[in-house]
Amino acid sequence: MKFLKLLGWILLAAFTVLSVLGGIFLLSKGFYELSITLFVLIFLIDFFIINRKAYPYRYMIPALILLFILVLYPIAFTIRTAFTNYGTGHIMTRQEVVERLLVDPIYTYNVEDGKTYSYNVYVKYNGTQPTTDFKVIVYDGDESYVANDYKVLKSEAGDLILGESELVRLNESGLRFETENNRIEIVREGNDLFKYFYSPDDSSTAINEDFFKYSILFPTLSKVEFVDTLSNRYSIRQDEEGKFTFSQIKHMYKLGLAETVENGKSVVKTVIINTMTNKPLIEENGTIYDTNENGERYAVAGYISNYGVKNFTKIFTDPAISGPFAKIFIWNFIWAALSVLFTFVIGMILALVLNDPNLRGKTIYRSLLIIPWAIPAFISVLVWKNGFFNETYGIINKFIISQLFGGTPIKWMNDPFWAKVAVLIVNTWLGFPYMMVVTLGALQSIPQDYYEAASIDGASKWQRFWKITFPLLMTTVAPLLVGSFAFNFNNFGNIYLLTGGGPAMPNTNTPAGSTDILISYTYKLAFEGGRGQDFGFASAISIIIFFIVGGLSFINFRLSGSFEEVNR
Amino acid sequence: MAKKRKVLTHIILIVVCIAVLFPIVWVVSTSLRRDNAAFSTKMFSSRLTIQNYRDLLAPEQNGPRLVSDIDALILSAPPQDKITIEEAKQLFAKDVQKFQNYIKETESLKAKIDENINEIRDYFEQNSDQLIATFSKNLDDIITVLNFEKPAQYIDVAAYDLYNNGVDLSSISDVDPTAGQQKWEEMIGGRKSQIEILKGEIDSVNSTLQPLQKSYAAYQSQFTNQIGTIKSLLVPQLKEYSKVLNSLLQILESAKNSSAPAEFLPDEETIKSNFTTVLSAIADVRVKTEKYQDLQEISDTVNEFVALYSKVLSQWENFSYKDRAPYRDFLNTTDAFTTNVASTIKESVQLLNQLNSTTEKMLELQAQINQYSSNLTRLQNQLDKLNDEVTKAYEEISPALIYLNSEVVKAQLSDIKSRVSSLKLPTQLQLLNIQSKRVFGLVTDFASQLPESSKEQKSLRALIKNIDWPGTAKDMFTNYDLFVQSYEPYMKELKMYLNEVSIQGPEFMNVSKTGIKVRPQSLEKLTDVVLSTYRSDVVPSMNVMSRKATELSDKLDLSSAAKGQLKAIDGAAFRIDQIWQRKADNYLVRWILNSIIVAITVSLITTAVTALAAYPFSRMRFKGRKYGIMGLLLIQMFPAIMYMIAIYTFLSFAGKYIPGFGLSKLSGLIFAYLGGIAYNMYLIKGYYDTIPDSLEEAALIDGATRWQTFVKIVIPLASPILAVIVILTFMSTFNEFILAKIILQDVKQYTYAVGLYTFSTGPFETEWGLFTAAALIGMVPMVVLFLLMQRYIVGGLVSGAVKG
């Protein structure tokens, strides 16, 4: 036992240390919320285990881990994101973006009238197969250089982002080589042998071009910059004719100092400078701008920056957003209310019919009518969408409307009104069994004596229903109705799968549709950024949704006394 | 009375059940259909097959798949690049064998088709007379329907109308086409020629009107531009100037009360004359404001300005305090003002004049347009009236027209009947076909003249529905011939290239292993034949033949043996197609496996974690107990969608540093699903509460630790609810779609839910057979599971609502 205990303590210590390291790592990568979460978690776990009095909490440790990482962290993250402009064009932090501009091969250009070298590639063979071990020899008339093995300057998760290699004179490199017909055929380094493999000027090596391109050039060689003795930089780039030439390049941006006036004082700040024009880049609102030849500004890159409450006020002030938003908001409430209404009415009627103890085959009917609820919702919705509401081939348009009623096919998916009808039909079909079952249960809890007493007093069927059945039903079912309202308010799946949010609303620059509810709108903003994903705005809306739905549920809990039950 | 109500209730319930369950019935039937349901005109079909299920669950390695496998083996390419040469040669031999089996199967199927086609031909030959008799009877039935009563009036008019349109009425006795000419001219002909004249007049009015309208539109846009400019530039300017003028008046006023003497007065005369010049420039401009509201404001501004200006001038004229200081200010200000204003006023005057001339032009054009328009309306009305009269006339003679037409058609049908009576099938099938097409055309044309949905129209349409069976039969035979024609060379090439490939393959495999990959020509040709030639040459005719065989079976009343033969043809052709048709790969089985793995893992882990975490809430006292679960429930109201951004970011980041984890991996998805704790904790805690403490108390007294009582007593007792939770979590994870869609990106990693979604979009959108079959495969187990768990699902929901 003692041994196990010791093992346990060692594990705990190891776990703590690893997590702290992990937290620091996350911090360095900019995941502030996640690292804080991790630290709090580790602290709590250690506290619970070490402290005797915290015994009850130990049972909750696994749940807490999951809770923190999968629930609390996302919420914190979302809240913070709501106040930033995180989204397309603003995904990385400023530090990352600046680093990119300075170092990434994309931001380089071929120097005009720069030097170009011819080059040969030599490759080590494994039997008859070429490997990715290579050497590059560049030459320019008489001068020949070999490129030293490259240093990794920047890599990410195993992929090379930038490498640097020195060009060394051939005779100073310490390599031996064998020439034939004035061309170096074999290079020896220690015990390794590199054979002549490819040169862009030599068409006899064309059959090796594919291997060179896909196994050597694209993964590594294209990201290596070669430096010669004069500190000129070179890289293998594709020119206009598609040939891969070894040409001189320069980085477009460098860091510099600039003097600006801020608050009446002159301040020296670091800025990014365009090396070609020597002009500093302008930063505004989380985007970095450069000026082109005509003096016009264009965006180079963007980073996450603070947006304040703009994401929230945007809803009211930006006319392109407030209009659709208001429509979506209203439709959301209508949709939830109508769904509850229709499902409840149909469910209640069926429950009343089936509640008759003398009805034969009651269980069969009940089992049959429950099936729409039993089928996984997404399957049903897809079947309805594809087979029934499809405008050209769907059953409803093809057979029921055209042949039975002889009318024109309805544009289920393209007309805002009919799309809403379609979505409501499907939701009612999916939801009425639940209401039916629930109502049946509730009906059975109403004592029969009430009815007997009422019929003795001469009440008609209608009166018995409205004065006895309905009120008693409502007291038990009301919380469920509110719950159903909350559920449908956020019923993303049904709407998204059926219409994808519905025919797009015209004149907006966000992907808003006529059957969109707040949550599907949010999803589209965040994940279907045809015009750019806007996580910041999506986060803001989801906070609003949370307050609405949370508020509703809170009221519901209060009403149904669930809180008391929990406290028992 | 009660019994009647009962029956009614049952009927209503049954109808409701049918309506509600109809989609499911449709899913089942569509998944079994052989044709493509999306394009069919029938809601249900009788050509059934379980091929869709086979394709999804146990895809057959048919012809095209074999060819690509052989290709991979010979070239040592993925997925066959990692095996040894011996293994490759063995697989190759097996593939060749399978291929040869398929060829044999195809040949035997073709033989079956040959045999059955010949049987049908024999059948036609032997039953030729009966079939012709059926056809004739069909004609007789039609002729019977065509017996219309001869109307009393307008026969002559109708006759002439038809005669005028080139219809041959010679077959009808006692009708003289030319007799009704005069009356026809009265009722119809004359009006028709008047209509033509009117149309010409209308055209000419239009041709005059349109250019006018165009030029009016041009002026109108000019007008709008000018008003815009004036409003945005001129009017504000004038208002500004008016302010200055008011100030000038004020200065003059203040001069009365000033006592400071004026010094160095500038040249009064020059200033005044300049001032006056400007006034005269603008004073005359009056803006034409008739008809256009916008101009009123401009006009008012201009008039005000002019009035103010004149007032200043007149005050000046009568001014007597010219020795006071303010007067000098007045002069200076006026001078500066005039200089500033002069050129602007000149421009303004120009603008206003232009505006005026545009307005004039517009009014002029407007008058002309109105005149022509009213002319046009008048002519149009006349035209409409005449058209109505003609229509009415036709309505009046319509019964006569119908009668005459029916007689003509009857005669033609009798003629056709006599022609076909001597035909012999199957050799003269084409002639029969020609005649049946004629019948179809005649009757359809005639039926369209009848009043819509009348009894006769409906019966005629019903009668000719199946009369084109000769065409169907002929198409079937023709396409059979085409099929045979293209089949012979196809099969020959297939066998030849297969033979060559089987010989050359092993040699090339040796070469490929060394890294030199060359595709032998025989293999290229084989691929070509299997993929392109089959599709372009063989498939069209074979499919048409097959379809026509089924149609023929529906249209014609044949013996059951014959129907069986037609069905056999259809079946054999279908099987040939299944062997050689290129089929897209699908991963349904893998998707279902993925879903099951994910769902089981998630449900087990979630249940374990929540069972553990709920225990203290039920059994122990600690801070946070009261509001813990409530808070948890509340927090989980946060829309799950928004977790996704954070989780997505987290997974994409983690995936780079932890192998086997991250985006597009099942482990990442499992991790993301583990957040659904709150509701389960609530349920389990509730259940724990129902387990009495006494057992644990007793164990504690006997020296057990808390943990031991938990594991050995509580957990076993709680196993019912835990089992339920496992199953419920399994079900809800299996059905989860959104998170899976976001996180999984590789087709092979999809869960069943995401995979099914892709079945409904993109290239599979109209592959309803596959889609419904896939839907059914996933649906059935879930429905069964649900029905079994009904008690717990319903119980859990209602018990919260019903107290006690």
Describe the structure.
The complex is a heterodimer of chains A (568) and B (804). Chain A is an alpha+beta fold and 568 residues long. Chain A folds into four domains: 81 residues, Methane Monooxygenase Hydroxylase, Chain G, domain 1 (Up-down Bundle); 151 residues, Periplasmic binding protein-like II, CATH 2.40.430; 50 residues, no CATH class; 255 residues, MetI-like (MetI-like fold, Orthogonal Bundle), CATH 1.10.3720. In chain A, 51% of the residues lie in helices and 21% in strands. In chain A, helix 2 packs antiparallel against helix 4, helix 7 packs across helix 8 and helix 9 packs across helix 12. Chain A is elongated, with a radius of gyration of 35 Å. In chain A, 35% of the residues are buried. The C terminus of chain A is likely disordered. The C terminus of chain B is likely disordered. Chain B contains 25 helices and no strands. Chain B has 804 residues and is an all-alpha fold. In chain B, helix 5 runs antiparallel to helix 12, helix 6 crosses helix 10 and helix 20 crosses helix 22. At the A-B interface, helix 3, helix 4, helix 8, helix 9 and helix 10 of A face helix 1, helix 16, helix 17, helix 18 and helix 20 of B.
Mind describing the biggest β-sheet of chain B? Answer: none
Globally, the shape of chain B reads extended
Given as residue ranges, the uncertain stretches of chain A (5+ residues, pLDDT < 50) are 563-568
Gyration radius over CA of chain A: 35 Å
Q: Most extensive chain contact?
A: A-B, 101 and 94 residues
Count of DSSP-assigned helices of chain A: 18
Strand arrangement, largest sheet of chain A?
A: 2-3-4-6-10-11-12
SSE inventory with pairings:
The complex is a heterodimer of chains A (568) and B (804).
Chain A: H1 2-29, H2 32-50, H3 55-58, H4 61-82, H5 94-103, E1 108-110, E2 116-126, E3 129-140, E4 143-147, E5 151-156, E6 159-169, E7 176-180, E8 183-189, E9 192-198, H6 209-217, E10 224-227, E11 233-238, E12 244-251, E13 253-262, E14 265-274, E15 282-284, E16 287-291, E17 297-302, H7 310-317, H8 319-354, H9 362-374, H10 377-388, H11 395-405, H12 416-444, H13 448-456, H14 461-489, H15 492-499, H16 518-527, H17 535-560, H18 562-567
Parallel strand pairs in A: 6-10
Antiparallel strand pairs in A: 1-12, 2-3, 2-9, 2-12, 3-4, 4-6, 5-6, 7-8, 8-9, 10-11, 11-12, 13-14, 15-16, 16-17
Helix pairs in contact in A: 1-2, 2-4, 4-17, 7-8, 8-12, 8-14, 9-12, 10-15, 12-14, 12-15, 14-17, 16-17
Chain B: H1 2-31, H2 51-57, H3 63-75, H4 85-126, H5 128-145, H6 155-164, H7 181-257, H8 268-283, H9 294-317, H10 325-420, H11 429-449, H12 455-463, H13 469-513, H14 521-555, H15 560-580, H16 588-619, H17 625-635, H18 640-657, H19 666-673, H20 678-690, H21 694-701, H22 706-734, H23 738-743, H24 752-759, H25 768-799
Helix pairs in contact in B: 1-25, 2-25, 3-4, 3-14, 4-13, 4-15, 5-10, 5-12, 6-7, 6-10, 7-9, 7-10, 8-9, 8-10, 10-11, 11-12, 11-13, 13-14, 14-15, 16-19, 16-20, 16-22, 16-24, 20-22, 21-22, 22-25
